Amino acid sequence: MRQKMFRTAHRLELVLAAVLVTALAAAPVGAQQAPQRVTSVEGLTEYRLANGLRVLLFPDQSKPTVTVNITYLVGSAQEGYGETGMAHLLEHLQFKGSKGHTNIPQELTEHGARTNASTWFDRTNYFETLQATDANLQWALGLEADRMVNSFIAKKDLDSEMTVVRNEFERGENDPGSVLEERVFSTAFLWHNYGHSTIGARSDIENVPIDRLQAFYRRHYQPDNAVLLVAGRFDDAKTLATIQTLFGAIPTPARELPRIYTQEPVQDGERSVTLRRTGDLAEVLAGYHIPAGSHPDAAPLDILIRVLADSPSGRLYAALVDTKKAARVGGVQYQLREPGYWLLGADTRKEQSLDEAKTVMLDTLDTLAAHPVTAAEVDRARAAMLKNIDLALNDASRVGLQMSEWIAQGDWRLFFLYRDRLRAVTPADVNRVAQAYLKPSNRTVGLYIPTDKPDRSVIPETPAIDSLVRDYKGDPVVASGEAFDPSPENIESRAKRLALANGFQVALLPKKTRGASVVVSATFRFGDEKSLFGRAADASMAGAMLMRGSTKHTRQQIREELDRLKARANAGGNATQATLQIETVRDNLPATLALMAEILREPAFPAAEFESLKQARLAQIEESRSEPQAIAGREFGRHLNPYPRGDVRYRETLDEEIAALKAATVEKARQFYQDFYGASRAQLAVVGDFDEAAVMSVVREKFVSWKSPKPFARLVNVHTAPPAVNRSFETPDKTNAVFMAGVNIPVRDDDPDYPSLVMANFMFGGGFLNSRLATRLRQKDGLSYGVNSMLQISSLDRTGMFGATAIYAPQNASKLEAAFKEELSRVLRDGFTQEELDAARTGWLQGRTVTRSQDQQLAGRMANDLFLERTLKWDADLERKVAALNVAQVNAALRKYVSVDKVSIFKAGDFARSN
Fold it and tell me: Rounded to two decimals, what is the model's pTM?
């Protein structure tokens, strides 16, 4: 799947006026018919405009954000010969401007939006999540209405963006696992467009004519081929009226959309494909054709894949990972509008036999009739899947974005229908679909074997979706939460902080949330520089073993208990601290917290789990041996790191890390836990809907008596200024290269220069695609798909780093490096402008509000603030300082700490082949 993460925003006054002029010129408002209400299910209500646009409204007053998501029913499945990747190219060009929005990246950044766009087989979607204000919502709706029919789709933009998309294509070519999956799809689908990768063929990306792109855009980006969804805090009637004004004025297109009539024929024998490329891990995949996502068999097939591929309860995990025949297993079900695909896979390390792993995997699949799926397996899988659905329904923005996938399958109500079908699945259903579809003749893997009496799978026709959803009502609407203001002042007015007997600190922020959801974040700090020396590997393995079994629950039992409690939770640790995260609902928080306390206080360290963890980590590290990102990142970090080998802050070489991991034992991990773990220096924050008395009862019972065996003294970090270097690393057969640059700076986040540096970084390479680096390297020169700058500053020590990263084609190495140096030199010489600062500051401040509205992030911040002895007043002070900045202060701060000749540069890629 091709997805891009965008952070964006724009000025409402100019945008809304331009959109209204463009839209209203198309049809008089008076001639528009009022939106027609279609149906409502569990808080989601559908309306339809006269021009065919479907509108979904999902109000949720519990968070101060609003999400606008528009889904177009066009993806790679609609592309013709020579047009592969066209839908994805248009996704990029839709951010290049429209009549009323000539600089979309700038507008998006100014509104502080969290945004994304993605292209898939059956759909393309765009969304913006913003602070919930009438102005922001009008702006976002205006943006989507304008670029629906008024995007430029210009030749000059295609010329520059084509190279960016090609760079994205090259990035995918670096991953043999992704390429192998593409090969399996293209072998399994001989005729249907599902056999084509969404990114497209390189030749099509490079050569597609602009007139064909424009024709494709005019044909598919129309109101009768789109579904607009608004989720979050908004006024229903006002929003519907705005949608009618902005979108209702767009005429109904005269054309008829072409119907996809190509059907993949029944597969009549096993197919195979072999990929030979540079890499360190081998992989085997086995895929099968399955019905469309709307078919009733999709639910039992999805349960089947979890029964087989889940870790650690899955049958393939037991057959391959537990027996050390493979390092990892996994699986995915592609639920699509047309008959889709079902895929399992396993990775093997060099000392493991790929042939043996393949044989065991296929034997496991082919003997399901003799070893049918049990009721316990079905119940376990179903509980996990339904938990995720229930938790998703507690977050309007999650639901709003997930709807794109179900809309693409035929109708948004399929989401609820699929949930209901999951509830009803029986072991007999799962075993039936296993026998119906998991036949050798329906499989793509292995060798061709002639068969006298072929046994083939006939894929059912896609159901008539209208009849499935016509009278569907769904469950009762989830309880909504309060309209919560995430300003620092309001948070502080509600927050409560406690210091318990053993030094355990607690922060509580009660509020009514959608579905009575609640989150917990905690950190347990331990050790000092001397006691931790030489124990980094033991610490890492000890932390990773926490979730793999306690004295009362096995790893699988822990997962099942969390599923029963409708909780997502994790505990882990490194050399200096252990962490805990929980997401659940009000009534289940005490039990979930008690379970996680058990995991933290009573880990079992089972030897078999330790060995499987060790093998998986070795595989992960070895896989990175030839990856440009991993190589450049490791060497970059080592150069800027001042600590000696043995210090837990030291950055190991790849060989040192492998050697340390091979020497790790379960006894050493257990001993590290016994030497350090405790709650004498710990901070825990709870945010959401909870019973304070019940929560604090568990906290006092489980944590107050947990003493840390050794004293804690935080590791003090020191600033160093290593000499500037410029180093390149060869990664043969990798079509995508990585660039990293940076310099250490002596700054702490309470220094007077810190606010200026924050804004300098945001304007130089942060925000969305209108930063200095993105404008030059992506928008103008078309050299990089992903480029950004970074600012890492400590809250405790005067240590920090300013840097930048980019991906690019190896043959463009000199161009990209020169462009980076030119842009950094230009900003240091000429400085930013006051206009840049004003626009960036608006977006940055709104983005802070959006971040505080995310409960998990807020809980983590409040827990860390306990350790720093801060409150949210610090955030308010920082925002006031940023609001008061002038551009001279920003430019002076950047020049004070950064110069081109002090920046170190690290590059990794296949440079030899590109020369």
Answer: 0.88
